[in-house]
């Protein structure tokens, strides 16, 4: 393993390289909340030397540092992704991205950039929907009474999102989420739990209410864990309208599928990698 630091807009992001530095393909792993790069340790071990693997702690998590007033919007998080890719030594060709939870949310923002098709070879998204797609889904279901139950069901699953926006309750939500973890799921650090307050407040309501149309021209695989306690399985409805090369894979697992099922996760990721090769 080698590592270096990317300094960008009020943050220092530690970047780590694993696997085979001479491999034909490079994979970038982007974690979510309340995790850090170590959530991918089982997947990294499973990938072995098949590919060159890059992982980093997103701003405010793990070993990263963040200035008190630093920007944590998904627009900035997307800029962080491009900065990390640009920092990879001796990179030839485009990178394959595998992202989970909030890592996936911010990658949808990066995928909408004009730079996406020249930077990314493929995108594997796990349990992290596009906020712009969520806005479209919510509006479509709101005007169709027979779809109200599915809308209410997702709102119930997202109780913690609204909790983060309540000044007093918001401080307690990370602890409540940690207590909901089941055996075998990663145990977050206290610091990583607390960072979610600012992350959710800076992005969710703002972009669910207003934002650009979703867009992704990069070959994409969306993984849907059928036992995800946070997200409904039907949030993939309508994705094919704005993702030309889309594959939806349903897996019999919970929210932390990349951590609990690394063999399966590596197989899904490498399918896209081998297609590009």
UniProtKB/TrEMBL annotation:
The record, for Pfam families, names: Abhydrolase_1
InterPro entries assigned: AB_hydrolase_1 (IPR000073), AB_hydrolase_fold (IPR029058), AB_hydrolase_sf (IPR050266)
* Keywords from the named record: Hydrolase
Q: Does the keyword Nucleotidyltransferase apply?
A: no
UniProt keyword Hydrolase, yes or no: yes
User: AB hydrolase-1 domain location, by residue?
Assistant: 26-262
**Recorded coiled-coil stretches:** none
Source organism, top-level taxon: Bacteria
Q: Which GO terms describe its molecular function?
A: hydrolase activity
Q: What is the name of this protein?
A: Alpha/beta fold hydrolase
Question: Which source organism?
Answer: Rhodococcus navarretei
Where do transmembrane segments lie in this chain?
Answer: none
């Amino acid at each position: 393993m080698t590592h270096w630091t990317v300094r960008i807009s009020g943050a220092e992001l530690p970047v780590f390289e694993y696997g085979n530095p001479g491999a034909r393909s490079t994979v970038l792993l982007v974690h979510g909340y309340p995790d850090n790069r170590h959530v991918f340790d089982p997947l990294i071990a499973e990938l072995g030397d098949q590919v060159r693997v890059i992982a980093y702690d997103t701003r405010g998590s793990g070993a990263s540092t963040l200035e008190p007033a630093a920007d944590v919007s998904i627009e900035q998080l997307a800029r962080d992704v491009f900065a990390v890719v640009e920092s990879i030594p001796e990179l030839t060709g485009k990178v394959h991205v595998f992202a989970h939870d909030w890592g996936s949310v911010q990658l949808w923002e990066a995928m909408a950039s004009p730079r996406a098709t020249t930077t990314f070879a493929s995108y594997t998204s796990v349990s992290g929907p596009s906020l712009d797609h969520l806005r479209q889904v919510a509006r479509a279901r709101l005007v169709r009474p027979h779809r109200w139950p599915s809308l209410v069901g997702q709102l119930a699953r997202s109780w913690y999102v609204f909790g983060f926006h309540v000044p007093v309750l918001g401080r307690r939500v990370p602890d409540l989420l940690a207590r909901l973890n089941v055996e075998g799921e990663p145990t977050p650090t206290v610091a990583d739990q607390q960072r979610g307050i600012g992350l959710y407040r800076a992005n969710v309501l703002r972009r669910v209410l207003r934002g650009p149309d979703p867009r992704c021209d990069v070959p994409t695989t969306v993984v849907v864990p059928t036992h995800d306690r946070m997200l409904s399985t039907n949030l993939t409805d309508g994705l094919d309208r704005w993702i030309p090369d889309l594959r939806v894979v349903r897996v019999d697992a919970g929210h932390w599928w990349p951590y609990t099922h690394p063999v399966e996760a590596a197989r899904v990721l490498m399918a896209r990698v081998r297609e590009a090769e």
